[in-house]
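User: Some background: our group keeps a shared notebook of sequences we're curious about, and every so often someone picks one and asks for a predicted structure to add to the entry. Today it's my turn. The entry only has the sequence so far, pasted here. Could you supply the structure so I can complete it?
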Amino acid sequence: MKKNYMLKTAILSVSFLLMLRLTISPALAEIGKAFPSIAQGTLMMMVALPSLIAIPFGLVSGLVAHLLRKKVVLYVGLAFFILGGIGPMFVSDFGAILALRCFLGAGTGLFLPLATGLIADFFSGEERNAMIGFQSTAVAVGNIATSMLAGALAVVSYKLSFLIYAFGFITLGLVALRMPEPPKPAALLATLVPAKTREA
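Assistant: Of course. Here's the predicted structure to add to the notebook entry:
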């Protein structure tokens, strides 16, 4: 049976967010003008720090997903992503901005391993292969489109560049409304392997 297109959109929207932690780069020049006392190397931490933080949280995500429902992990990750992404719009201290960028990295790390895992949970065969291809496209489009948008918004105000993370609200809504809880491994096995084969 063909999967619901809204389910596919919900899953791909998670992939759309994967590279957004890096797409603030075009706005760094304008952010640097707002904080002239901040060294260039420290300014670059806005890009590097979320990626560093994402690594341990990515490892934690896989463990937690076995204990909790995957949608719960997604909700927490997206909440951290939105808080850490949009939060810098409302603060004027560079240290606070870096702290919020850590939340962004933590959120990205939590849902990063699930982006591909969800495809395996809901799809099989050729449909799964097609979705993996669509996922690569979603990641690339998210990276390019939000980089351009961040740069354009930063010309108006560096704070507006953080609006690119509002895409997290769209993904959160799609996950909540259009994505069922992924089946547990045992339930997934039961749908893929005939009962007689398992008994043998």
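Suggested note for the entry: The chain has nine helices and no strands. Confidence is low (pLDDT under 50) at residues 187-200.
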